[in-house]
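Record 1 of the preview.
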Amino acid sequence: MIPKIIKGENYNDSRGILFYNNDFDASAIKRLYVIDNQKTNFIRAWQGHKIEQRWFSVMQGSFKIKLIKIDNWEHPFKDLKPIEYILGSKKLDVLFVPKGYVSSIEALEKGAKLLVMADYLFGAIQDEYRFDLDYFKV
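->
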């Protein structure tokens, strides 16, 4: 599987704005949480999962998310190239991140909030991998 954006939309009328995503199937979701970075120059990188899948959706503001497919979980190649996404809160887009990827998450605006959804409950599996911010030559 490869990462993909599941496109959302919005509808605006005299009552306000309705944000929706009719193509997102949330049946695999077991837990969710929100990332609210204190500073826009802080980058949460690189962490990911060999087994767990994630979905990201911006609730407020915008984020830059980079993903790297890991070739070897014990000693990944340092020249692996990231895929970069810019997500915003104008539509209810969802970025699907399949198992096997690490991510870098950076808020692009003060007050930005990112909803993270996962397909395993917290502590159900030991599947968190972390690499230093400067591990990959990106």
